[in-house]
Design a protein that fits this description.
The protein is an alpha+beta fold and 181 residues long. The chain has two domains: 10-134, Alpha-Beta Plaits (2-Layer Sandwich); 137-181. It has seven helices and five strands; from the N terminus they run H-E-H-E-H-H-E-H-E-E-H-H. The chain has helices at 10-24, 39-51, 61-70, 74-77, 94-107, 125-133, 137-180; strands at residues 28-33, 54-59, 85-90, 112-118, 121-124. A five-stranded antiparallel beta sheet has the order 2-3-1-4-5. Helix 1 (10-24) packs across helix 3 and helix 5 packs across helix 6 (125-133). The longest helix has 44 residues, at 137-180.
């Protein structure tokens, strides 16, 4: 664990406060090591994440440690803040963001997922990979709505089938009488 100064400079206090505001404004956080990425690759990753409602920021480990500790994330975050760390602040569906990060890590092996905090619960790298394979919130809602819609749709088909069959029977009777006459 790094040493902590007893008195912080105003610029550092301001940086920690900005980081705390970013943490409070986000639902979930994904931690990654970015060592070896070029500026172009990081810019591309940031663009992909922005489309999913997330922001990637390179943070100073001590500042991040202080900010997360002050917000009550002490034991989960401390091991993740070693080495060059980039934190993805997720404001929307963290499942989609995890997919983007893991797909990018497959293309560019220099990016390594360290872990995540999702719904105030810690996930290691393997759990983040498993989480990314699950359907997203939007997909789950669509599945639920289709399951709820199916019985009503079937009822409409059944109710529609009765007059349709009646019309077909009457048409068959009409054709039969026309042939007999």
């Amino acid at each position: 664990m790094a040493m902590r100064a007893t008195k912080l400079q105003p610029s550092k206090v301001e940086a920690i406060q900005m980081l705390k505001e970013m943490i409070q404004g986000s639902n979930d956080y994904v931690f990654a090591e970015y060592r070896g990425l070029t500026v172009e690759q990081i810019t591309n990753l940031r663009k992909q994440l922005r489309e999913k409602g997330a922001e990637l920021h390179v943070v100073k480990n001590n500042f991040a440690r202080i900010a997360f500790e002050e917000l009550g994330y002490t034991k989960e975050v401390a091991p993740l803040l070693a080495g060059p760390t980039a934190v993805t602040f997720v404001k929307s569906d963290s499942n989609d963001v995890a997919k983007v990060l893991l797909d990018f890590a497959k293309e560019v092996p220099a990016l390594t997922i360290k872990g995540a905090l999702v719904d105030k619960g810690f996930m290691d790298k393997a759990q983040v990979e498993a989480f990314s394979k699950l359907p997203g919130r939007g997909q789950l809602i669509a599945m639920l709505m289709s399951a709820m819609n199916a019985p009503a749709q079937n009822l409409v088909y059944v109710l529609n089938a009765i007059p349709t069959k009646l019309v077909r029977v009457l048409k068959a009777i009409e054709e039969k009488k026309a042939q007999e006459a």
